[in-house]
Structure to design on (702 residues):
């Protein structure tokens, strides 16, 4: 899934080049390219599909030239994750009626890759045997309020696969503290593993409107007729997330405890937590830097540039070729409002 | 005089493009171009000479293509203002043995230009009649510690030309307050007007070593031999300012009270004082900007770029194509030390 637009990383991310297409850490590969590289170690190229918004079709082809057109599923409008996953499931079923599928966001950070790949293998083995909806849960290392949580039933298999008791939305701090200390709550990573028939059955049961709509296209998936069908039907789908529409309601949900390091890179703060820091907890992404009497700042400039920062504490400093943003870290959730105001003041040039 | 290098405006000014060659206010003309334009209204182009360091020869030709090579006086080494003025005086005397000369820095800001030009005319008329060294003094509007002061003898001519009692170096704050309240102290603008013979006589009397050295070149000025002569002799001149070497010692010094707005643009702070500000006293030079909970900042980005600044107070924020500097206004005098440190850390790429 690589269709998101987020303005939280503005001005690094822009409407025409959102987060998944950016190389945050200066590694030479964007987040979606890293996601492709990661899976391509265990999944053949022809079995990798990207679902994204129409407007990013060219960017996808540019960044992952290995994909053929039939591997790029274009959403004519944004309808959240449930219709996106339904579309991909029907498309894949037309190619392989018994496919096992990993669903993953394209804009997350995964550390300890070999653990990740081992976990994915374990999950695929599990859904081969059992008609379950498997989700990956991350052992929390702090009482984070920015993530949804999954509560599991005590006990579990040898492979650290546990039965799920409940999904919960992002908690407040008090609740997050309780979740963190209890030991049976995990972060919801948004990575799912299931057999194509298990998820389609779940759509039929929990989101029958969406299932009925996609059933109309049987015989058209993975053919030249698919495009027209999707352009007509997709916009009429309910706008709903897979968590809310299916995962929270289904009774065959299991969770695999992830062994890898994970972040949804949802905020500059989360990026700062993960990045390498100097002794004063300053991070500079991609650029050269000199910090003087400054601490706890995150600075990101285009590659090779130099930042000289004096007397600054707890700030985000981000520059692109045409924009400079300086914002207190505590206020970063307001960046999306700044973007709205800038749109009002200067039009869409800087959006 | 357009040979200075200053690192106080780094990274806006760089070793290969110092302050006088920059367009600080986004008017389309650099400070030296503005100086040329200003004088060219009353002084014919062929009577305008630029003295500068050899390394800026090409920049001068590029920025003021109106000048012929013989109007560009190249200093092979830096030797402060006295040798520079001596060289120009001997060069000009070879062209016109009775020339009246205005000596001006090329990197100052002049407001109310028609007052300025009227003052210059008044000064030229005065030095036509009297063999005096005339300096332009600016009525102080605040007890500034960043300027030298000129104390005058009470009384004066109708044209506001007064006899000078003393030159003083940059005062401390206490002294600056006394100067400011006394009413007979003026800022030393560094603009001088005199007859070529008056200043050469002053060199003979107060800086005889320099005069003797330049006398060796008589017959060579304004000829093809000048260049070789200057390359040999100039580096051997004493490194001394005209203020310290002559103005503070001479007994025929007068001062004309300037009617125009003036700043030596010596610091980011002085630039901020002069620039247009919003209600929260923020200034953005050349760029677009949005300030949120921010006050008293000076922001300068390359033309057309956008700065979004949240929660910042009393800072200088300057970005060029390859450098971003964020520095508390109170610490701006340390910028030149940062530049030294950067040179140590990254070599001369950013200098």
């Amino acid at each position: 899934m690589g269709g998101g637009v987020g303005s939280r990383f503005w001005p690094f991310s822009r409407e025409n080049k959102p987060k998944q297409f950016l190389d945050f850490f200066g590694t030479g590969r964007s987040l979606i390219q890293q996601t492709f590289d990661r899976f391509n170690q265990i999944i053949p190229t022809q079995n990798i599909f990207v679902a994204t918004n129409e407007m990013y079709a060219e960017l996808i082809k540019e960044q992952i030239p290995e994909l053929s057109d039939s591997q790029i599923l274009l959403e004519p409008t944004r309808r959240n994750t449930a219709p996106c996953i339904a579309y991909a499931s029907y498309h894949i079923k037309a190619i392989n009626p018994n496919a096992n599928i990993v669903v993953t966001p394209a804009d997350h950070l995964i550390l300890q890759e070999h653990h990740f790949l081992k976990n994915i293998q374990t999950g695929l083995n599990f859904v081969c045997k059992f008609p379950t909806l498997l989700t990956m849960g991350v052992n929390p290392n702090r009482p984070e309020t920015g993530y949804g949580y999954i509560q599991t039933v005590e006990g579990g298999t040898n492979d650290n696969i546990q039965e799920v008791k409940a999904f919960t939305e992002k908690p407040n701090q008090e609740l997050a503290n309780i979740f963190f200390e209890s030991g049976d709550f995990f972060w919801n990573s948004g990575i799912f593993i299931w057999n194509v028939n298990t998820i389609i059955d779940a759509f039929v049961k929990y989101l029958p409107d969406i299932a009925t709509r996609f059933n109309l296209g049987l015989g058209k998936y993975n053919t030249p007729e698919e495009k027209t069908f999707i352009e007509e039907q997709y916009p009429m789908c309910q706008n709903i997330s897979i968590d809310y529409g299916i995962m929270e309601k289904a009774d065959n949900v299991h969770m695999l405890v992830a062994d890898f390091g994970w972040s949804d890179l949802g905020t500059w703060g989360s990026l700062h937590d993960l990045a390498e820091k100097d002794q004063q907890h300053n991070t500079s992404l991609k650029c050269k830097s000199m910090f003087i009497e400054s601490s706890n700042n995150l600075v990101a400039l285009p590659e090779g540039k130099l930042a000289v920062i004096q007397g600054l504490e707890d700030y985000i400093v981000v520059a692109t070729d045409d924009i400079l943003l300086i914002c207190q870290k505590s206020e970063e959730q307001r960046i999306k409002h700044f973007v709205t105001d800038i749109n009002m003041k200067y039009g869409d040039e800087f959006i």
Observations:
- Chain A touches chain B at residues 11, 288, 290, 292, 301, 304-312, 315, 317, 319, 322-328, 331, 334, 338, 341-342, 345-346, 350 (CB under 8 Å).
- The radius of gyration of chain A is 21 Å.
- The first helix of chain A runs from residue 31 to 40.
